[in-house]
């Protein structure tokens, strides 16, 4: 079955602009979470959505927001972009066990955002 | 609160020799622990996970990890490194919060494999 799809793969934006990233989870997965990966801070949790509701939120400013649609697809928005927002943004969907016991996260390949 | 420490930022091995990537964790609860691998410009791929069953966990591509509660460790090993194993490896501890499991990532260990 198809994996987690993130679009676009690469994006270049200017400071002060806003950006919207998209994530389509594995079919049947209802939870989508977002992460920011930078060389300085590593991988950090942004937020998680389940059935169109934000269920958990990391320690990021309000410029970072998201939403989830009824088909479980999720979007992440960053407003008033700063140079420090340059990062790889990963999303993961969460669902039934994938071949081993317990639950599992499946990650997309990410969106590389560069702010200039 | 949970945290995870990967003890080495870089590990360098020769092809065919054993691999050891070290991870220590801290968790208030019985943790779920994972190892993920990330190849350049790719997302994270799950290697293996521990969720309170057998303490020795076998994963994909010949990797395995042993959960040692007394040492709060979850080290990743492989008997014989292959060139294709060169990548970034992340140890992850997961805590249940708000009905879901929120992962905390280690800073990563870069595995370098020499021919």
Describe this structure in words.
The complex is a heterodimer of chains A (116) and B (115). By secondary structure, chain A is mainly β. Chain A has no helices and 11 strands. Chain A is 0% helix and 54% strand. In chain A, the strands form 2 sheets. In chain A, strands 2, 4, 5, 6, 9, 10 and 11 form a 7-stranded mixed β-sheet that branches. Chain A has a 4-stranded antiparallel β-sheet with strand order 1-3-8-7, with no helix packed on it. In chain A, a hairpin with a 2-residue loop joins strand 5 and strand 6. In chain B, the strands form 3 sheets. In chain B, strands 2, 5, 6, 10, 11 and 12 form a 6-stranded mixed β-sheet that branches. The radius of gyration of chain B is 14 Å and the shape is globular.
Layout of helices and strands, plus pairs?
The complex is a heterodimer of chains A (116) and B (115).
Chain A (H helix, E strand, L loop, with lengths): L4 E3 L2 E4 L5 E6 L6 E8 L3 E9 L2 E5 L6 E5 L5 E5 L8 E9 L8 E4 L3 E5 L1
Parallel strand pairs in A: 2-11
Antiparallel strand pairs in A: 1-3, 3-8, 4-5, 4-9, 5-6, 7-8, 9-10, 9-11
Chain B lengths: L2 E4 L3 E5 L4 E3 L1 E4 L5 E7 L5 E7 L5 E3 L5 E5 L4 E6 L8 E11 L2 E6 L3 E6 L1
Parallel strand pairs in B: 2-12
Antiparallel strand pairs in B: 1-4, 3-9, 5-6, 5-10, 7-8, 8-9, 10-11, 10-12
